Amino acid sequence: MDGVNRSDSSNPAKNVDLQQTRKKQKQEVRDEKTKHSSEMNELRDQHAKEINTEKSTHKTHVQKQREQQQQSYLRAVEERSKQEARVRQEHRQQTLAKEKEFHDQRTDFEKQKKVENEVAMRTHNQQHQELQKHGTEELKKTHQEYAAQIQNEKQDMEAFRLRQREHYKDELDKEKDHYEGQLSGRANEFENRYNEGELKHQLVLEDQRLRYEDHYEKTKYDFLEKMKKHETLQKDPFYRVQDLGAEMADNGPLYQVALKVPEHELKNIKVHVQPDRITVSGARKYEQELDYQGEKKSTHSYQTLKQEFALPTPADKDLVKREYINGVLFVTAPKKGF
What we know:
Blueprint: H1 12-112, H2 118-230, E1 247-250, E2 254-260, E3 269-273, E4 277-292, E5 295-310, E6 321-325, E7 328-334
Antiparallel strand pairs: 1-2, 2-7, 3-4, 4-5, 6-7
């Protein structure tokens, strides 16, 4: 088009450039928002992973402490049972030793004092009964003391377990308050960073808007300057924009382009189908020379024409068909998926 810019109504190419500039700016804004959203998601995921790791570590620590406390309690009970068994065994041995001693004394006494009278025997029997009664009372008293001691130790152990349980509960509450405080602080930090990012984004958008307005005014000025030069060339057909007269129709499952072409020009017309556009192009040249009465004239002309049709739905370039009927070239391209 020889570098000539047109307004939105007379220069579709310039309008397309402006639309592409706007689309590029919108795409940059969307990319910035996507990047910012991705960073925020990464921060949230990292924070959630840290909290889960800390919770898991704390839970494992509490479980280990509980297992150690339970094992200590079981060892204490087992040690107490062993101690009771040793005491019973010692008491039993003492009783057997005393009984054996009494038996030996009685045997010796009977051997040595066979001739003693019934009074001495009765006295001896009374002493034996008193001694046996005293031993029974001592044994009973010892059992009662051991039972009371075991009961006291069980109560102390239960009280110790309750104190440990309360201590663990207090520690858990403190850890929970600490984690909630950290979570609240990080949430505030995230909110502040988000607000800062939003402010920076607004400033960038405002700067882009100002740059776009400056560029628009400069482009408008350059266009008006070039239009002054173009007004003098408007009447010359050499500088006019011409097209091939092709028309495209959207027939549901396919696109169809129709173009009137003389049969002798059919070889110079090319139709190129891409997924997003259909391009019709043509080229022709004309050369002629005249030599009359010593005067020689020659004309060399070369012309290229091109039309493009944007496709809202991608076309299948591998299934394109060409038909030439009654001076009209028909190009059919089915849509992808049909």
